[in-house]
Structure formats: structure tokens, C-alpha cells
Amino acid sequence: MAISEQKQTSLVPTNGARHNGNGHKQTALAVVARKPHVQANDNGHLLSADDAPSAQSAHELERIGWRGWWRTLQVVRVMWLLSFYLFLENYEARSKYNRRMSERGREAARTLDRNARFRAWRRDVLVRLLDRLIRTVRFVVFRGADESQRKEARLARQGAWFKRSLIKLGPTFIKIGQALGTRGDLLPLAYVKELATLQDQVPPYPTSEAYARIEAELGRTLQAAFAEIDAEPIAAASLGQVYRARLHDGAEVAVKVQRPNLEAQISFDIAILRRLVRALSRFPSFTENADWEGMLREFSETIREEMNYVHEGRNADRFRRNFKDWRPIRVPHIYWSHTTRHVLTLEFIRGTKVTDLEGLKARRISPVKVNRLLVRTYLKQLLEDGFFHADPHPGNLLVMDTGHLAFFDFGMTGQITPRLQAQMITAFFHVIERDVSGLAQDLIDLDFLKPGVNPDLVRPVVEGLFKHYLNLKLGEVNFKELTYELAEVMYEYPFRLPARFTYIMRALMTLEGIGIITDPGFSFFDTAKPYAKEFMLRREGRQFRKLVINKLTGRDEDGRIDWRKMWKLAKMAAKMYLEK
Questions:
Q1: Which residue in 391, 409, 442, 519 is the catalytic one?
Q2: DSSP E strand stretches across 23-168
Q3: Most CB atoms within 10 A, among 168, 298, 470, 503?
Q4: Are the beta carbons of 238 and 176 closer than 8 angstroms?
């Protein structure tokens, strides 16, 4: 979690007093005198009693009792209202699909007997009556006509309601809201904009509780651990909040403290969500366009990793090693002597948010160059390292006065297998070459079709879509607009977003949002194209050399080299060399 320069506060000596702007003394919040019971985990890190690993099994956890049923009702209410609003908003696309299906049914029934024609007529009448009913409900709920301005205002109100509901439901659902805030394929843009504010507008919890947790986790008093520490958090997020402090050796640090009882609450909520998803998965329409069970499983695994600050610190160290040769990139140093599962102490870095255009310009830093550097770092993460920062929102990215780009908050990261990297590179080849047939096959290979579907049935539709969009300038297409315009196709054909792409799409859509703010003419494809070619050539070149050496030495396993692909790489390399 990064702290922009505008949010800094004065440090508070841990002896309990500080001076305000008028020279008067103010007393810092007192540390809770009673320490919670402390025990050690398997790694020797200290835990408070509240957050010791639960003895409950998953089976026992799902026996949620009356409190669980009440919580379930609260969750279902929000989910039902959200689904209801979105159903009404997207009804036009569904209605067109229903009309086409009715027409096809009538056409087919004409060649059959009288009973079949009667059944087709009856279905048609029921569809028309249901359509009238839904349109009436839509008119009443949305209070009249559907002009674009009224629609935008209505969606903004719905998005604000949804954000408030998630905050009320607590940390689990705030994290879900943050993830949904990058899913333009699932939610309208007005919702996405509202949910984006969940990144840095979460209410804090009392500092007295945070102080008590720091002491319990570190096994020593605040005075022993820090020379000074703030009395108020400088940032609050869904899982924890951050205090600015100073170590006894003079190092200025940020201390990230996890919210109390977080693990128990999130485990409880995930058990409830798992029940709901299982119940709803019996209805085919629920799993039409998204692998909800896979997404929940990935969310559960990711948030459990994110709650372990030791894991986050190791991720930061790994990221720093991956970029050790990139001078413009900074990752804060982790102070392991002051870090446990629930307290993370790291180097305090000052800087300006990547979206603060005025602040960057005042420091003579080009926002466009910063954005290009950010895109390059993500291409390296995705196409070369196979390990990426999955939460690149503006609060986690700072530009230092020296021009360095600093990354923060490595609780949410993703990994990409070499096989998936190769598939993504192949897809990029097809985008560059405008190979429509190849792109259609890529969608099939990457599991964007539901299991059991015959790819030959949908390949012509996919090819038709790509022909339309690939004929546009790359700068005229962006992820969110594309997914909205495909809504009608998604209803009729069996496409869905695989769970393994959830965090890749989250990162790419967030990057696109930052890019559009920093550069109005930004196109992710146009910006990424030259750098992606460079990474592709480097990676595929290494693979090619390995294949050739193995073949010459007789160590190859399948003995196959894709010479056609190698020829394309050679042409691309020659073109890049001539362009320079």
C-alpha cells in the first residue's frame, strides 16, 4: 500500500506526546496495557490468540448456525438486488436473443404437425407476455424512459449503493468489490468507477487495537520496537492499515497492521459463498459466462496468501530480484526483524501517485513516459518472469522525485505457467499478423469456451468478431468497450472467462485505466506492441536455441521444431532492426 506525499502526517514520539501546528502538545493514543496472549506459529512468528489457526475443519466451518443464516440472508439480499438491476439493465440484449429463438422455433414448427405448431405458438405467446411483464417492471423500477443521461445517473446511483453494501458487509466483500471493480465484462462502467474507490476509501479501525496487535505480534513494547510511531493511520485498506514510524537506527518505515479477527471472518464468509455458489451452480444460466466456482476458489487461495504478511514480504523480495537490473524500478526493503504473519514493516518511500498529473508535471516527470515504463514492467512480468503484481491500482504505485517507479503491496500476485506464457505469445503473434483464424483457435486453446462445446460451431462467429475489430486501428479498441459490445454474443454463444485469467484481466484493465488517465490517446495494444515484440524475440529465441541444441545432441524429447514460427521471428527481428 503506497502513501502519496500529500497524505503524510507528523510523526508521534512513543513517549505519548507530540506538538501540533500551534506549538501545543497533543497526546498520542495510549497503548492498551493488557497484552493479548501470545503464541508462536510454525515459522517462529508470534501470533495473537484471536488469530491463531482455527481448530475448526472446513466441514465444521460450513455448519454456520443461526448467525451464518443471518449473514447468508444479508449476502443474498445484496447479490439478488445486484442481479436484478443488472438483468433489467441488460434486458435488451436478452430480449433480442429471445425473439430470435422464438422466430427459429416458429420456422421449425411450420414443417411439423398441428400439435407442434400449437406448442410453438403457445411458447411464443408466453415469451411475449413475459417480455411485457419485464418491461413493465423495468419501467416502474427505473421510473420511465431510458435516455442516455438518465441511464448514466441511474447506473451511478446503483454503483454507489453496491459500494456501500459491500463496505457494510466487511473485508471479504470489500476485496470482492475491488476485484469486480476491474471486471468491465461483468459490470457496467459506472459500477467499475464506484468500486475503484474501494482501493483507498475504507474506514480505519481504532489505533489502540492496532498498537495492541503490534505488541502481541512482535513480542515487545512499541517503545522497544520503534523510536517513534504515528498516532493515526496514514492509509486504511480492506485487510489492514498503515502507520508511519521510525526504527531505533533512524530508518523511516511503514508499519502495516492487519485488522483484528480477519482470518475467522473471511473463512466464515467464504464458507457462506461456497454454499451459495454450489446452490446456484445447479442453474445453467448462472454459469453461462463465468466460472464462478473457479473464481471463488482462486479468490479464496489468493486472499489467504494476502492475509499472510510473511508471504507478502517474500513476494516483494522475489519481485525485487526479478527487476534487479532495471534501474527505474524500486521495491521497498522489508524489515524482517519487525515482520510477522500480521504485521509488515517496510521501507517508507515518498512519491507521487501515477495518476497525479499535476504533481508529476510539477516535478518535471512525464506521465506518458511513466505509463510506458509501467506497461513495459507488466510485459516483463507476464511474458518473461511468469510472476506478476495482480493489484496495480494507483494507490500501489508511486513515482519518486528521482523518476523511479515504486511498487507496493505484494499480497496479491499471480503466476503464469510456461505453457500459458507460450499460448499468450502465440495469441500476440496472431494479433500482430491479423490472423483471424489463429485468434479463433487461441480462444479455444485458452479455454474461453465452456467444456464440451464443439469449437467448429463457434469458430465462424469468433472469426467474424475479430475481422470487425482487427480492421479498426488498435488505438480505437479498449478492453471494456469490447466486452460491452460483445454482450449480445455472450448470451447466445458459450463463451466465458476462465478462472485463471481473473487476475491477469484485473491487472490489464487496471493498467488500461491508468493509461487513459495519464495519456488521453493511450492504447494498450499500441503501447505494448514494440516491447512485447522484444520480450517475445528474447524468450522464443532462448527456446529455439534450446530446441536446436537438444536436437543436435540427441536430447530432444519430441524432436519437433516449429520452423514456420522461427521464420516469423526472424522476419520480426529483421524488421525491428531496420526500424531502429
A1: 391
A2: 25-27, 38-40, 46-48
A3: 503
A4: no
